[in-house]
Amino acid sequence: MFFRAFFRVGKDLAGGDMQSASGVFSNSAILYLDFDGVVHHDSVYWSRDAGIHIRGAPGRVLFEWAPILEELLAPFPGVKIVLSTSWVLVRDFDFAKSKLPPALQARVVGATFHRREMQKWKFDNMSRGAQIYADVQRRQPLCWLAIDNDDVAWPTHCRDHLIKTKDDLGLSDPEVQAAISARLASFANHQL
Questions:
Q1: How does DSSP classify residue 54?
Q2: How far apart are the C-alpha atoms of 75 and 62, rounded to whole Å?
Q3: Are 83 and 93 in contact (CB under 8 A)?
Q4: Cα dist. 188→29, 31, 88, 131, 143 in Å?
Q5: Structure pTM?
Q6: Tell me, what DSSP letter sits at residue 85?
Q7: pLDDT tens per residue across span 29-51
Q8: Which helix (H) or strand (E) holds 46?
Q9: 10 Å Cβ neighbour count for 51?
Q10: Alpha carbon 23 to chain centroid, angstroms
Q11: CA 66/CA 104 separation, integer angstroms
């Protein structure tokens, strides 16, 4: 949502990181993290007057559910985060990372979009699942999962790695929390 709203006003400040060399994370577990519809309500917009804000969802605030993710990840210090959010495309990697709480920031190792390694127009035309799977192929993590509210056109062979959230509940949904906990626990069977 944020991506579309932001581009309506002509912003295009794509960014990324360079930690994407093949095999760099072959002994790691990676969590691909979207923002809108995951760490806060999906209805995120940008305006000159209000900046980045949630519209049409009274009482909701940006990153309100990030502490839930911190708590879920606490028993698993080896799990790294790769940002799969459109915030990286719209603003840049450092901006997106800085919006997370410090404990989550410390886990962030990169983003699915890397402006030095890919063409923005090509990345824009990929489904979120295809974007994530391309990153999985580059990083080659031992195990991975994606938390996202967008399940459109996910590659069939990757769907079991997706924990889909509801736009208005994100990480506050107890069923999503249980699914994340179960998946993280399954990672413990690997030599991380």
A1: E
A2: 25
A3: yes
A4: 9, 14, 30, 26, 10
A5: 0.87
A6: S
A7: 999 999 999 999 999 999 999 99
A8: strand 44-47
A9: 9
A10: 20
A11: 8
Contact 161, 179 (CB under 8 A): no
pLDDT, residue 189, reads 76
- What are the residues whose beta carbons fall under 8 Å from the beta carbon of 191, sequence distance 6 or more? 27, 142
CA distances from 85 to 67, 142, 174, 192 (A): 18, 22, 22, 25
Give residue 17's region: left, alpha or beta (phi > 0; psi -120 to 50).
beta
Task: Give the three-state DSSP class for 67.
Answer: helix
Backbone dihedral region of 63: left (phi > 0), alpha (psi from -120 to 50 degrees) or beta? left
**How many angstroms separate the CA atoms of 56 and 75, rounded?**
35
What fold, for 15-42+61-187? Answer: Rossmann fold (3.40.50)
What is residue 22's three-state secondary structure?
coil
**Half-sphere exposure for 86 (CA within 13 Å, toward CB):** 23
Distance CA(21)–CA(162), nearest Å, equals 23
Q: Which pair of tokens denotes residue 173?
A: 């949904």
96: left (phi over 0), alpha (psi -120 to 50) or beta: alpha
Q: Running DSSP on this structure, what letter comes out for residue 170?
A: G
pLDDT, tens only, 55-81: 999 999 999 999 999 999 999 999 999
CA atoms within 13 A on the CB side of 16: 20
